[in-house]
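Subject: Predicted fold for Relaxase/mobilization nuclease, 298 residues

User T.R. writes:
Posting the sequence so we have a shared reference for the thread.
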Amino acid sequence: IVWNSVSMADGRKYHSNAKSYYTEIRKISDELCRKYGLSIIESDQKKSIPYVQWKAEQEGKPTWRSAIRLDIRESVQESYSWSQFLKEMEKRGYTWKLNRKYVALKAPGMERYIRLRSLGKNYSEEEIRGQILQPKVKRIYQKTVQIPPKRKLTGIQALYYSYLYQMGVLPKRPRRSPYAIREDIRKLDQRIEQIEFLMKHDITTREQLATYREPLQKQISELMKERRKLYRNDSEDSGKVRLSEINEELKNLRKEVRMTVRIEKHSLEIEERLRKAEEQNQNEKRVEHKEKESQEER
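User M.O. replies:
I've generated the structure tokens; pasting them so everyone works from the same file.
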């Protein structure tokens, strides 16, 4: 994209493009930010990254890119050559574009390929090749989340617990978290909040969620009616106090209603992700079995 603007210095048209942005406009912007004590987005790449992604990574929150990086790191630890690394990634559902200047890969479920080097420092082909040759060291990439069950879980409580286990965030971890599940790790806080809600209210089915939501919706309807009446008599001080109380009650009730709706929706998504994860696991076992048979034949 090329656009024109008028220079304030000499009145001539200024022709701007992506290159001039990073060499001129970005430089001026950074200088102004430093002058007035504003934050600067630091990046060692010429290509910009979306603000939401940058902010999430600055705050240490996982993103779909962090899921890919984790798969790369795990594959590097299991590989002793570049070709073995490519196969390890393919087992995880990735596809490659290799006959080009910059190697690109596509993660399961993604529509487009991305360049390895766009994942940041240490993720270019050269860096990965170098890491493959280094001694293998066992690493832990995620913090443990403690959610001990009080009893044997059933229904959607068990579903959520199984999902968190497959994510690899519980004390006892799976051998490897499937990508179909780990790509959802950016919503980990939501998933933990949801299972805590289910356990707090002893809800194990979607039908119980609907039953729990029904009286809340009735309360909301009644409070809305009361609030409309108070609005007609807004001159009374006592009415204003009650309005404030009603608004706070409505806020809490609506929050609980939204939670039940989200759990209904997300529990279905979780079931589908676990199904895909099981398919991926079975495919990997078949590939490993074929490789073993091929080695034995030799």
